[in-house]
Structures are given as structure tokens and as C-alpha cells.
């Protein structure tokens, strides 16, 4: 089996490493172009590219996979199978039809739930207790192809998107290793998805990141976990973004006279804020223009009074 692997972030790395370790013929690796990162905007290669180059594999980085020249470049490797994992672009029909064994995707959810680009983040944000990985044949629709195999992974109460990405990336690679032999020998069973059970996980927007203090403490806690350590959840303080990287649902009783978003206590553990239902303790924060830090550290020099209300105003 000549395989073309397509993936970009850390999530995809264990799957590529599995193919290499198991001795599969990886003809080429397709990944996103290098992007500027950090304060100095240094041009940085995707993690998958770094692994591919380390093992001497050819790397393609088309800006748009739909362009004819990109399709032709992939076709030149004559793949029997294309394996994708968090590649970051929708494959056109011209690519889907290239390999004789089809295209498969390592998707970070239990399909048909959480189709789309942010299944891991949204599973946490929605308070799910279990998620997983599905390996599926790719089709024209958004994660609508027939399922081949899947594995469940519990979501711990303290999981963030970062920790869950790591768990699912390893689980996905192991599942890929168990699934490929059946694809190679033609015994893989393709199971159609039940579209009536489908839910969607669209890419995150700025609105998804803003904290709505009228929601419950548990809902906001899940939102913060689901956005950490990537985009981060934020509120407003003095008219500027104030990020919340970590928090806890407080055991303290709510102050029924306090408004949602109002600081009800300032302690050595952090900032206690009233929500629509319960109190949320902010423990790791990042004021505008500063680094992320423990809330207790910031409070030593900040003038934050009880009664301050987070979240008012426009960006």
C-alpha cells in the first residue's frame, strides 16, 4: 500500500509516526504551509512537516488543495490510500477519487456526533463525559462518510482541550494501526452514519470565546476548559480583554444580591465571580498586555475591588 498522509497539527503526529514505525510505504506527506507564530511572527513549519522531514519523506504544502496543480502533485505519487488526520482543508472530489482504496480520516469524535472542525473543543464545552475517535471513509459531505472503526475515550472533569487532544491523538493512532490491515485486504466493513443523530462542531469564533456570566458556573467552567490552552476564554475588565485560562466551580454559596459577572470575593486562591447559577473561582488569568499568571499573583498588585463587574461593554 502506497500511502499519502495528510495532516497538520500535533494531533496528526502520532498517526504519521505509526505509519512510519509499522513500515508502511509513506510516499509523501501533505500539510499546511508554514505560518508566522509568536510575537516575532517567525515562519514556523507545522508539526507534521517536522516529523516528515526528520524521516526523509517528501513534503507538499499547497496553499489550496483544490487547485489543479496541487491535485496533480498528489496524483504523481500514485497512492493506493490517502490517510488524513486534522489536515485543515476539505478535499475536493478530484483528490478523493485518486487512490484505489479510497481516502480515510482519523476524526476526533464518535460520529455522527460532532462533525466539523472543532469536535474536541466543543465536546468539552458542551459538558460531554465521553468522546472518542472514528476512522471513516471520506466523502463529499462534511464528515459524512461511512464509518470503519471507532474507540471511546472518557473525558475527565479536569481535561482541557490540550490534554484531550493528546489522549485522542494517541487513541487515533492506535486505532489506525488496528484498522489498516482490514483496509489493505478488503475486509473492512463500512457502516453508514445515521444522519438523524448527527450534531455539528463548527470552527470556533470570537463569540465562542467570550464569557457570558449569565450562564451557570459549570457551563463557564466547561467553556474555559474547552478553550484552553489555545484561544482561551475571555471577559472584559476596564474595557479590555481579560483572559481566563483556568477556574473552578466554587463550593461557596452564591450571593443572591450580586449580579452575574460581579466579583463577590477576592481570596488567596483567586477571584470569586457570581454567575447566573453559582460562583466561579478564577485561578489562572491574563490581563491585556500581560503574561498568563496565577490570579493570586496578579491580585498582589492589581486594584480589583469586591463589587467590580466583569464583562460590560463592547470590544
Automatic annotation (TrEMBL):
It is an enzyme of class 2 (transferase). Keywords: Protein biosynthesis, Transferase. (6S)-5,6,7,8-tetrahydrofolate binds at residues 109-112. Its EC number is 2.1.2.9. InterPro entries: Fmt, Formyl_trans_C, Formyl_transf_N, Formyl_transf_N_sf, Formyl_transferase-like_C_sf, GART_AS, Met-tRNA-FMT_C, Met-tRNA-FMT_N. Residues 1-177 form the Formyl transferase N-terminal domain. It comes from the Bacteria. Gene3D superfamilies: 3.40.50.12230. Residues 204-302 form the Formyl transferase C-terminal domain. It catalyses: L-methionyl-tRNA(fMet) + (6R)-10-formyltetrahydrofolate = N-formyl-L-methionyl-tRNA(fMet) + (6S)-5,6,7,8-tetrahydrofolate + H(+). Belongs to the Fmt family. Attaches a formyl group to the free amino group of methionyl-tRNA(fMet). The formyl group appears to play a dual role in the initiator identity of N-formylmethionyl-tRNA by promoting its recognition by IF2 and preventing the misappropriation of this tRNA by the elongation apparatus. This is Methionyl-tRNA formyltransferase. It comes from Paenibacillus cisolokensis. The gene is fmt.
Amino acid at each position: 500500500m502506497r500511502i499519502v498522509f495528510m495532516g497538520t497539527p500535533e494531533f496528526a503526529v502520532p498517526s504519521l509516526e505509526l505509519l512510519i514505525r509499522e513500515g508502511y510505504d509513506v510516499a509523501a506527506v501533505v500539510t499546511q504551509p508554514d505560518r508566522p507564530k509568536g510575537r516575532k511572527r517567525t515562519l514556523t513549519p507545522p508539526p507534521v512537516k517536522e516529523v516528515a522531514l526528520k524521516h526523509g519523506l517528501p513534503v507538499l504544502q499547497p496553499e489550496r488543495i483544490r487547485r489543479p496543480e496541487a491535485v496533480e502533485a498528489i496524483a504523481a505519487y500514485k497512492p493506493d490510500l490517502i490517510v488524513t488526520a486534522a489536515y485543515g482543508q476539505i478535499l475536493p472530489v478530484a483528490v478523493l477519487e485518486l487512490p484505489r482504496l479510497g481516502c480515510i480520516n482519523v476524526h476526533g469524535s464518535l460520529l455522527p456526533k460532532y462533525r466539523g472542525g472543532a469536535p474536541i473543543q466543543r465536546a468539552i464545552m458542551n459538558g460531554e463525559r465521553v468522546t472518542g475517535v472514528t476512522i471513516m471513509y471520506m466523502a463529499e459531505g462534511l464528515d459524512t462518510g461511512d464509518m470503519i472503526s471507532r474507540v471511546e475515550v472518557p473525558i475527565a472533569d479536569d481535561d482541557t482541550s490540550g490534554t484531550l487532544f493528546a489522549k485522542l491523538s494517541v487513541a487515533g493512532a492506535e486505532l489506525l494501526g488496528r484498522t489498516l490491515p482490514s483496509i489493505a485486504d478488503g475486509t473492512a466493513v463500512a457502516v453508514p452514519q445515521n444522519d438523524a443523530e448527527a450534531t455539528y462542531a463548527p470552527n470556533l469564533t470570537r463569540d465562542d470565546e467570550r464569557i457570558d456570566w449569565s450562564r451557570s458556573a459549570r457551563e463557564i467552567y466547561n467553556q474555559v476548559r474547552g478553550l484552553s490552552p489555545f484561544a482561551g476564554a475571555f471577559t472584559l475588565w476596564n474595557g479590555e480583554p481579560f483572559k481566563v485560562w483556568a477556574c473552578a466551580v466554587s463550593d461557596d454559596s452564591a450571593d443572591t444580591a450580586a449580579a452575574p459577572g460581579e466579583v463577590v470575593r477576592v481570596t488567596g486562591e483567586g477571584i470569586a465571580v457570581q454567575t447566573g447559577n453559582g460562583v466561579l473561582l478564577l485561578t489562572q488569568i491574563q490581563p491585556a498586555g500581560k503574561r498568563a499568571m496565577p490570579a493570586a499573583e496578579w491580585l498582589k498588585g492589581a486594584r480589583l475591588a469586591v463589587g467590580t463587574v466583569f464583562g460590560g461593554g463592547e470590544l
